């Protein structure tokens, strides 16, 4: 059984798993997270880390300040997030600014196939979430 840490995750993603396509894998200066850039999805960055009993993957979607009528938008995503398989919406602070994110977590005892599947589903869900945010910004979705 593989013990997931930054080294083993780097090896996994550096192998360019077919389900994810061509990837770039880097460790940002903070050093506690892996950045997996999905080239075929417009260079989408997925941040992956492992610690304790879990592996976590996250995609930053948009600065919260860029989303109009935040309270109504957040209510919308709370009502609909159960329709997003294997992923959850959240808010993270990046350089003092709130960002909407989509993340998923799984057991640190998961197989390589399951880790890749989780990231692939997260990427697909992030694309859908980005479209949702754009539709919200354009007034195509009512509160």
Automatic annotation (TrEMBL):
It comes from Aureimonas glaciei. The lineage of its organism: Bacteria, Pseudomonadati, Pseudomonadota, Alphaproteobacteria, Hyphomicrobiales. It comes from the Bacteria. This is DUF2170 domain-containing protein.
């Amino acid at each position: 059984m593989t013990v997931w840490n930054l080294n083993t995750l780097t090896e996994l993603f550096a192998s360019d798993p077919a389900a994810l396509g061509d990837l770039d894998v880097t460790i940002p200066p903070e050093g506690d997270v892996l950045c997996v850039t999905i080239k075929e999805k417009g260079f989408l960055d997925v941040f992956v880390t492992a610690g304790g009993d879990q592996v976590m993957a996250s995609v930053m979607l948009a600065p919260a300040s860029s989303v109009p009528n935040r309270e109504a938008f957040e209510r919308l995503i709370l009502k609909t997030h159960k329709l997003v398989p294997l992923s959850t919406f959240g808010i993270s602070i990046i350089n003092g600014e709130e960002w909407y994110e989509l993340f998923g977590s799984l057991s640190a005892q998961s197989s390589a196939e399951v880790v890749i599947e989780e990231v692939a589903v997260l990427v697909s869900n992030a694309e859908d979430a980005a479209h949702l945010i754009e539709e919200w910004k354009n007034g195509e979705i009512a509160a």
